[in-house]
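Memo to structure team: turn this sequence into structure tokens by end of day. - J.P.
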Amino acid sequence: MRRNRRVKLIATLGPASSPPEMMERLFLAGVDVFRVNMSHSSHELARELVFNVRSVSKKYACPIGILADLQGPKFRLGAFAGERVPISPGAIFHFDRDEAAGSAERVFLPHPQIFEAVEPGHMLLLDDGKIRMQVIEARDDRITAEVRVGGPLASRKGISLPDTLLPIGPLTEKDYADLNCVLDLGADWIALSFVQRGEDVVEARKLITNGAAIMVKIEKPSAIDDLDAIIQAADGFMVARGDLGVEMPVEHVPGLQKRITREARAAGKPVVVATQMLESMITSPVPTRAEVSDVATAVFDGADAVMLSAESAVGQYPVEAIQMMDRIAIKVESDPSYSSLVHATHVLPQPTAHDAIAAAAHAVADTVKLAAIVCFTATGSTALRVARERPGLPVIGLTPVHATAQRLTLVWGIHSILTSDPDKLSDMVRKACKLAFDNGFVAAGEGLLITAGVPLGSPGTTNMIRIAYVDDQGNAIGGG
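Reply from structure team:
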């Protein structure tokens, strides 16, 4: 099923979108990847959701990606007497290891890692940043802080520490169990929460191996500090603007979104922009003008995908929200300024034969005015390199590997098609022309650029460019 846009759409599954008939409607409306949020999904529900996604994929003979999002560590306060207390600005407040019900002066903090790592001067953000405190004394059994921004505080609200590098990894016991579950189910991407440093991704890779691609959610200031190492270690990235906007000043988020998008693109790795993109459509059939501009900005920046969270999970208008994103993307990509803006940051190819082939494919296709670029790829790396160039024409990824086809559904501009490896060069050209023609990417008399590796069927050997033209039946009629 061909999309009329290059940016991909991700929808989070939830009560509003989990029924099979709604899932199918969302796919037809434009969803390329479904997100399973393990913070709210039991293993039984995850199995049901994955089964339903694969059923829709099979019905339409079209790869659909599955992104399994792990919860990660969550830090919460203990309980207060009366469940809610007033916290006054300028007051002194204590966090301790006493499990007794809290008051307006103190509360139980059941996380020894915080006591180990926090230092005077560090900020503490409570209840999604609504209440802010600064540490003035840190001991093994008590943290004393001055209230900078007060307000009502309820039991078991979250606590964030933007200045503190905590001595923990991104996976909890729950995450280990959830990870085993979603890997067994064949999830295509695993989203890691609470990544602080590149080493966290390296450790997660040892568990995931090649079972799925790793997407790092950039949501911690410490992750920004170690962004180069994280980009090198991960397969893809999500700009998690909600948590990022809690842990650092919100005015920093737009610039960081552009930086992460730019650096991920330079590395040839997909980047997703997420959180509150069409937030008003949870309860309204139309978005605000500001939300439309927000989605458009991500598309103009060349993000690989944009994602809906609550809008599709619990919203009243999940199909309308996807349709709106689809229309915004199509309009932006047809704007006269789109090409210049998406290429405003020049991406230099890496000094490898594969990257040189990808850059050459883009240049040749533009010069000769071809209809599409066809990449034969087993691992997806060839298609990723071509997509990194953001060519002005479709990229077709032909692969014999189901997992590769499904992972590429998240990548900018790539239309994944499952097909067997060609036996010889003439079969490669014939297959590329016929599939591109049948899927509406090339018309009679138009040409294709084909990239592949010789010997055929050998992963990691992309070393060839071929141009071919098609007749009115989709057969190859020549080339060079």
